[in-house]
Amino acid sequence: MAKSPESEHPIKAFGYAARDVSGVLSPLTFSRRATGDKDVRFKVLYCGICHSDLHFSKNEWGFTTYPITPGHEIVGVVTEVGSKVKKFKVGDKVGVGCLVGSCRSCENCAKDLENYCPQQIPTYGFLHYDGTRTYGGYSDHMVSDEHFVLRWPENLPLDSGAPLLCAGITTYSPLRHFGLDKPGLKIGVVGLGGLGHVAVKFAKAFGAEVTVFSTTPSKKQEALEGLKADHFIVSKDQEQMQSTANSLDGIIDTVSASHPIAPLVNALKTDGKLVFVGAVFEPFELTAVSLSPGRKTVAGSAIGGLKETQEMLDFAAKHGITADIELIPIDYVNTAMGRMLKSDVKYRFVIDVANSLKAP
């Protein structure tokens, strides 16, 4: 007989969870494992709200097991460490992103690409090594193997820095991997939401000339004046799109809804790269002859390994990069999810967990 979330482990925990496809989140008492030799336990201070949290809560991807406590942009302060932990001590500020486990022995793990490990364990909603479910950061505390815990830079704000653990690394990693991090390059960013606005900030910090593509003309002022992008293109305007032909070294596409990509491929220079980081499940329409004349590349990318994520946090701290956030109490989370669905946030909700989550 399966154990209940409250009795799986010895340490009582408290958070917010969805219990069915309505996605409505409400208080849940559950449990976390005792601190192992290599574990770090920390009090959750802040947790960002990602679109993935909404998809999982509503089982929109078809593999949610309830109850589910979302949250994988988690920042906190260490309260306990295992006897073999070397990197952290009580009182340290730390973060946990999208992963809490991987096999640590495959080719990807050996290359610090735990994010591509076939046996990776996401931070919430999946089975851990012991067969119990993982629970995310909409909760009072977390426990994780120290390998998957990140050192928080001293001068990086905790609240507005939290979304970097997903939105940040998701856009930083492809810029770095595909060589789109060199000064003077011309980079496009498709979509100006939670991922897109951070992509603009990283590309600008790398010294790029940045063009934002958006279906929403009203975002022009924010893109150019607020985020310091160099150009703004309304992607539904064919004339504006044609003006970008053969002009960009790379494009980071952050949109999670189905959209035309042939005009984006057309915007690439010879050897240009179009990289998708949004979760689009519908097939794209693309011909080989739109790629071959310019030796263009269409690729995908997903978060980053732990080494690269730490590098990203340190780079963000050095360059003053944070997400633009709206800080909310946890009892506002359902309203925030509804607003996020309507893109009614600039640009990321972050839950003030420590100051608003009260255990019964």
TrEMBL record:
Signal peptide: none annotated. The keyword Zinc applies. Keywords: Metal-binding, Oxidoreductase, Zinc. Its EC number is 1.1.1.195. InterPro entries: ADH-like_C (IPR013149), ADH-like_N (IPR013154), ADH_Zn_CS (IPR002328), CAD-like (IPR047109), D-isomer_DH_CS1 (IPR029752), ER (IPR020843), GroES-like_sf (IPR011032), NAD(P)-bd_dom_sf (IPR036291). Residues 23-351 form the Enoyl reductase (ER) domain. One of its GO terms (molecular function) is cinnamyl-alcohol dehydrogenase activity. The keyword tRNA processing does not apply. GO terms for biological process: lignin biosynthetic process. Its cofactor is Zn(2+). It is an enzyme of class 1 (oxidoreductase). Belongs to the zinc-containing alcohol dehydrogenase family. This is Cinnamyl-alcohol dehydrogenase. It comes from Helianthus annuus (Common sunflower).
